[in-house]
Amino acid sequence: MRTSTTARAGQYAALLAYLVFLAFPFLWLISTAFKPARELGSLHPTWIPRDPTLDNFRQAFDEQPLLQAALNSLAAALGAAVIAVLVATPMAYVMARRRGRLGRAVTGWVVVSQAFPFVLLIIPLFLVLKNLGLINAVPGLVMVYVVWSLPFALWMLTGYVRAVPAELEEAAAVDGAGRLRTLVSVTAPLLAPGIVATALFAFITAWNEFFFALILLKTPERQTLPVILTHFIGAEGVADLGPLAAAAFLATLPSLVIFALIQRRITGGMLAGAVKS
């Protein structure tokens, strides 16, 4: 009994230390965002600003087009999320209900696609988008995000489809409904929580993405928030710390809020995909 209690206490201590490790950068970011310039250069920094100010936020919006960048990020993330779900839902239905060579091939594609690093993909993607005239354009970035998020979206939705009883679809078939009518009228409404969770996950992935946006978007009025944040760092690598922290804090909030709302649904989708029906 004593050994079990000690082990459990050790587990909780390790979990607490891990949570502190994860929370430290964000808490320090918040503290920095509200500190005046004189506190940022202090030799004895404090967690809580002695004289909180909003000057860093005002300066951030004055120095960089944060609002336009946020709109670009929103357009790219929303477009990628909607298209990825529209494409992945019927594919996931086929994979879940017809477990043959096609399902194994698509599963293999999902696994293999996640193994490729960004650097190997950027050159062919750049050439394709250049031929389509979509370099330095948000629609081109949306296409890249859809391709990148589709494997994981397909994997998540396949788990949700398998959790839907096949007897409901069989009953619809007896009533004369075809595959498409069954998917739209019977299966899709039951998949609503999974579709929302998948769409929000694709949204978060696109909202936070930096590498593709840096390569494909050239002008500041087309760039997304993660790229604009790098403009607060000067040519010699010196960061404008206060405005950078303020802008980064604003850019991080949507991801944190959305992930807090969907983390249970994401876990449920993974577990559903792991259950053998």
TrEMBL record:
Annotated localization: Cell membrane
Membrane topology, as annotated: Multi-pass membrane protein
Predominant subcellular localization, coarse grouping: membrane
Keyword Nucleotide-binding among record annotations: no
Alphabetical keyword list: Cell membrane, Membrane, Transmembrane, Transmembrane helix, Transport
Record InterPro entries: BP-dep_ABC_trans_perm (IPR050901), MetI-like (IPR000515), MetI-like_sf (IPR035906)
Pfam families membership: BPD_transp_1
Transmembrane domains' residue ranges: 12-34, 74-94, 106-129, 141-161, 182-207, 244-262
Presence of the UniProt keyword Transmembrane helix in the record: yes
Annotated ABC transmembrane type-1 domain residues: 70-262
Classification via PROSITE patterns: ABC_TM1 (PS50928)
The organism's place on the tree of life at top rank: Bacteria
Family membership noted in the UniProt record: Belongs to the binding-protein-dependent transport system permease family.
Name of the protein in its database record: Carbohydrate ABC transporter permease
Organism the protein comes from: Streptomyces parvulus
